[in-house]
Amino acid sequence: MGPLRVLSASGQLGYGLPAAALSQGFARRPHLVGADMGSVDPGPGYLGSGTMGPSPEGAKADLAAVLRGARALDIPMLIGSAGTGGARPHLEATAGMLRAIAHEQGLHFRLATIAADLPRETVLKAVRAGRVRPLGGMPELSETEVRQANVIVGQMGTEAFQRALAAGADVILAGRACDTAIFAALPGLIGYPMGPLMHMAKIVECASLCCVPGGRDAMLATLDGDGFVLESMNPARAATPLSVAAHSLYEQDNPFEVFEPEGCLRVDAARYEALDARRARVSGATWTPARQLTLKIEGTTRLGERCLLLCATADPRVIANLDSILPAVERNVQGMLPADLGAYSLHVRRYGIDGVLDWPTPPKAPPREVFLLLEFVAPSMAAAKTVAAMTKQYLLHHGFPGRLSTGGNLAFPLTPPEVEAGTAYRFNIYHVMDVAELPPLFPVSLEDL
């Protein structure tokens, strides 16, 4: 079996592509090009709202650059987790961009779209049968949470991509998908050994992030049977044995096992060697097919409308008394709110003290400045803004023992300092579901452009 060249165009499409590296990647005549387009890393907002992380203009520009290169070489182009969240609205919006690019640039190809939205009843049946397990500290999934979810997606593996390839698709746009599936589907369909090809896919899905220094440039992987060679398309970046081995652990709680819908990749016996100063070869990974097919499922539910209050202080007395000031102000505000306002939540982040991390101990020396981000979530934006505005005034003029300045406790970076932040969501489904078969869950639709 000859070498198979796999080009990873980007670690997350839509945020700009280093053009020189992408051009160099296509000049190496890859057999396929792929890119991930989504993640849960940005939180539940994009999945819940059906909106994209990147701007539509940025997403379309990146799609156009990759599509032009793929069609010029007549090679498959595979995109996973369309539009950030990978649900139906994201898939449709991204497919619309591909259609527009094809029309504008006179490109012709067979487009496959693969939906990842799961029927609510399918998940409910799995919950009732005890076939759903929590991930990442989530509680057991209840039928109530499933019913409250405004969207539920499953993270497809290689099987759905392979069905689309077998149907003659030139361009595959998938909803929520495993990052590895984008790059593993074609080699697996051809018959390359699953261990090395899945390990390759695990590393290249982030493009040149596995290099020194890491970056967003296109990455070329060459499968050669029992291993693969990695090379960044930016000559300033080097894939070293150490940097590649380190990236094998990326986003994994187990350093030796990577679980996918169709099986488990083991990298404890993997070998990493330098071919030269910029290229590394990897071999030795193994693959065990799953006895039980599984899916990671993700869902969100609406919390309410969110308003932010942005303010800061450099008053050392205010900073020293924040632990008592903030709850006192909240109590005062609760006593002044209209009775019919409804329930709301307040979350305070104190940047400079514990805004990023809930430290187990206070700082050894008080910070010179503290930035406060107060997040209000209420049934309506009007209610959230009412609480935010009232909190602003009471926090600004709150009196406390030792106070010297009566002109105000706060500085505001913006006017008005209350910022509408849209609808708030939370992940209420982040679980693994046992399934009997995969094809019915991820329908493939074909169209010729």
Descriptive report:
This protein has 449 residues and is α+β, with helices and mostly antiparallel strands. It folds into two domains: 4-116 and 155-291, no CATH class; 302-426, Alpha-Beta Plaits (2-Layer Sandwich), CATH 3.30.70. Helices cover 31% and strands 28% of the residues. It has 13 helices and 19 strands. It has helices at 19-27, 45-49, 56-73, 88-105, 120-128, 143-148, 158-166, 179-190, 194-204, 241-247, 316-320, 322-336, 381-396, and strands spanning 4-10, 32-38, 77-84, 110-114, 132-134, 151-154, 171-174, 219-223, 227-232, 257-260, 263-266, 271-274, 280-283, 286-289, 294-313, 345-351, 370-378, 418-434, 444-448. The strands form three sheets. It has a ten-stranded mixed sheet with strand order 12-13-9-8-1-2-3-7-4-19, with helices on both faces. A hairpin with a 3-residue loop joins β8 (219-223) and β9 (227-232). α7 packs across α8 and α8 (179-190) runs antiparallel to α9 (194-204). The radius of gyration is 25 Å and the shape is globular. The mean pLDDT is 96.
Tally of helical runs:
13
**How much of the residues is beta strand, in percent?**
25-35%
Structural class by sheet pairing and helices? alpha+beta
* Rg from Cα: 25 Å
Largest sheet, in brief, is: 10 strands, mixed
Give the overall shape, derived from the CA principal axes: globular
Report helical residue fraction: 25-40%
> What is the number of domains?
2
Q: Tell me the span between the first and last alpha carbons.
A: 33 Å
Given as residue ranges, the uncertain stretches (5+ residues, pLDDT < 50) are none
- Determine the mean pLDDT: 96
DSSP summary, beta strand count: 19
